[in-house]
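Field guide to reading this record: the first block holds the primary sequence, the second block holds the structure written as discrete tokens, and the final block holds curator observations. Each block starts with its own label. This record concerns Class I SAM-dependent methyltransferase, catalogued under organism Halorientalis pallida.

BLOCK 1 — SEQUENCE
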Amino acid sequence: MKGQEWYQEDDIAEEYEEKRFSRGGRLIDRREKQAVLDAIGPVEDRDVLEIACGTGRFTVMLAERGANVVGLDISGPMLQQGREKAQRAGVSENMDLMRGDAGRLPFPDDSFDSVIAMRFFHLADQPASFLSEMRRVSRNQVFFDTFNRFTTRSLYNWALPMGSRLYSRWEVSRLLDSAGLHLVDDDHDFAFPYGLYREIPNELASVFRDLDTTLISSPLGKRLASVSYWHTRVP
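BLOCK 2 — STRUCTURE
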């Protein structure tokens, strides 16, 4: 797994959200959360598992909406940040954060209504095995995102300390077939790489976001999109 040791550093966990979701990164945070909610629909009283939950951005959001959420991550410091966030939000009783390996999920088959993984598959060295595990423990739905090959993300990758795994649509289709998942819907976004938004003030980021949305809405939109969201079902 790319960056496994890096993500477990105490200082990385403490600074993670401040570096990624302040300034223009707030637009990314809002878009990702909306993508999750659009895909899995009403979550009240549903059992949801988040793989690689990190500091609990999505687990807390889902718990606030009444879901029974389990978040799993390999980083103890990240999970501690998530527990503190859950306490501040008053949703600790609705969620459980645990340390574990996404390649060997410690749950029986069909344990959850929905299983999600955000910002995970770009780090996966064996994506097929991870997706297969997600499908195994889901009785209904699997949702995840990928960073796309042949887009601005390819250029941005050069600037990253550990790079990212990038996917073509064909590769994702092959992964879904091997996991026995049915594609319900896919959505594509962000012609400009995430790193650009993080480096500029929120007000300026809004201007770029308007242009970005226009580009994505064009006939070439899917080809330009650096991020894809994949909504799948268990047959």
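BLOCK 3 — OBSERVATIONS
The chain is about 45% helix and 20% strand.
The first helix runs from residue 4 to 7.
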